[in-house]
């Protein structure tokens, strides 16, 4: 147990990372209530007791071109955080996901002699794999939530610990609402969950085509998973078409859904862990896609397929993300019982590979062990 007061600087840069950061802070505090936290994050981190120097909304961008266009605000945020780290003088820095930004902070903290713990490391296995060497040089410990990552990092001489997947911890804590339909004024027709993403940029790129499916499936009701961290206008198109948007109830929506159309990201794994048959979609700018296509070195982009190491769910990416393809695939998800069952067998494999470890608690113990040695 840590005897002296310890100060920790923790950084996350989007909604899922913020959720995992908040849970990690809760776990750390349960082990040592004297720990102090400051950093960058969002509502989850703030509610866990992190004194926020910066809200991640000020810097969250995605896509190669989009990052370039937003480069000035990224540089401003980096400068602010670096200055704040120096002023705070933490005993350790914890970085949660958000690779492009946090890799720079890792290098900076290492230069300052501050121990760096990276929870949910950058997906260096997907492109420019030699970045693993940079990660190795600028971190003290790395904690992985994907079971295929430690063997990959071992090829670069890194000892990365697989700690389980924190989504499983979240889902275990979840209790479905008994009055979900009544609470949200839904009918009892089969639900198709639309998960367009947690960034305004994603929702803008995905939601219109998802909504265009609605007239072709009158037997189902379409429900959009909204997040209240985005402006209400983000979902105006859905509301104008009479499509229900429910906020901050994604797990309840998945618990009641028959099928789902999901933007590639963390939500694809959540959907798989709820055993909801799904279709994964993604589209970015033409230039970002052309750059990504030449750099990315993995056969899939969705977490279910990457973890299973085979095609479990259909991915409609860029030009394949057409209304005809969406219509055909959703029709299969709703009507082909054999297809649905095969997908759920694939979900069994994913569940087996993730295992039973409690990620937040495991990482908290490992970080505190490291602090004790200081």
How would you describe this protein?
With 374 residues, the chain is an alpha/beta fold. It is 48% helix and 16% strand. It is built from 18 helices and 13 strands. The protein has a seven-stranded parallel beta sheet with strand order 3-2-1-4-5-6-7, with helices on both faces. The protein has a six-stranded parallel beta sheet with strand order 10-9-8-11-12-13, sandwiched between helices. Helix 1 packs across helix 18 and helix 4 packs parallel to helix 5 (99-111). Residues 62-69 have low confidence and may be disordered.
Distance between the termini: 12 Å
Overall geometry comes to: globular
The order of strands across the largest sheet is: 3-2-1-4-5-6-7
Give the strand tally. Answer: 13
Report strand %.
15-25%
Helix fraction, binned, reads 40-55%
CATH-assigned homologous superfamily of the largest domain: Glycogen Phosphorylase B
Low-confidence stretches: 62-69
Q: In the CATH scheme, what's the topology name of the largest domain?
A: Rossmann fold
Integer tally of domains: 2
| Oligomer type | single chain
CATH architecture field of the largest domain: 3-Layer(aba) Sandwich
- Total helices: the number is 18
Gyration radius, rounded: 21 Å
Q: What composes the largest sheet?
A: 7 strands, parallel
């Amino acid at each position: 147990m840590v005897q002296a007061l310890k100060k920790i600087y923790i950084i996350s840069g989007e909604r899922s990372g913020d959720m995992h950061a908040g849970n990690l802070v809760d776990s750390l505090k349960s082990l040592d209530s004297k720990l102090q936290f400051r950093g960058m994050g969002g509502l989850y981190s703030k509610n866990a007791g992190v004194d926020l120097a910066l809200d991640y909304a000020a810097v969250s961008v995605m896509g190669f071109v989009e990052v370039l266009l937003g480069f000035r605000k990224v540089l401003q945020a980096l400068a602010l955080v670096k200055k704040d780290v120096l002023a705070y003088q933490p005993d350790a820095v914890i970085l949660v996901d958000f690779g492009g930004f946090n890799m720079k902070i890792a290098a900076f903290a290492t230069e300052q002699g501050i121990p760096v713990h990276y929870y949910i490391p950058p997906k260096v296995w997907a492109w420019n794999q030699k970045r693993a060497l940079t990660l190795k040089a600028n971190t003290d410990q790395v904690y992985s939530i994907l079971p295929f990552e430690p063997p990959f990092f071992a090829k670069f001489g890194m000892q990365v610990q697989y700690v389980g997947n924190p989504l499983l911890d979240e889902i275990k804590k979840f209790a479905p609402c008994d009055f979900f339909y009544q609470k949200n004024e839904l009918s009892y027709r089969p639900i198709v969950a639309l998960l367009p993403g947690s960034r305004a940029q994603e929702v803008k790129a995905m939601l219109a085509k998802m909504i265009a499916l609605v007239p072709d499936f009158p037997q189902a009701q379409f429900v959009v998973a909204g997040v209240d961290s985005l402006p209400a206008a983000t979902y105006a198109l859905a509301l104008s078409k009479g499509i229900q948007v429910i906020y901050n109830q994604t797990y309840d929506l998945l618990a009641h859904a028959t099928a789902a159309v999901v933007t590639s990201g963390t939500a694809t794994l959540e959907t798989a862990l709820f055993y909801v048959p799904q279709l994964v979609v993604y589209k970015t700018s033409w230039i970002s896609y052309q750059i990504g296509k030449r750099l990315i070195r993995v056969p899939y982009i969705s977490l279910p397929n990457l973890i299973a190491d085979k095609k479990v769910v259909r991915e409609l990416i860029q030009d394949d993300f057409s209304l005809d393809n969406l219509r055909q695939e959703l029709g299969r998800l709703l009507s082909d019982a054999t297809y649905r069952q095969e997908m759920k067998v694939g979900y069994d494999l994913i569940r087996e590979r993730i295992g039973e470890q409690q990620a937040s608690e495991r990482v908290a113990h490992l970080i505190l062990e490291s602090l004790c040695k200081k």
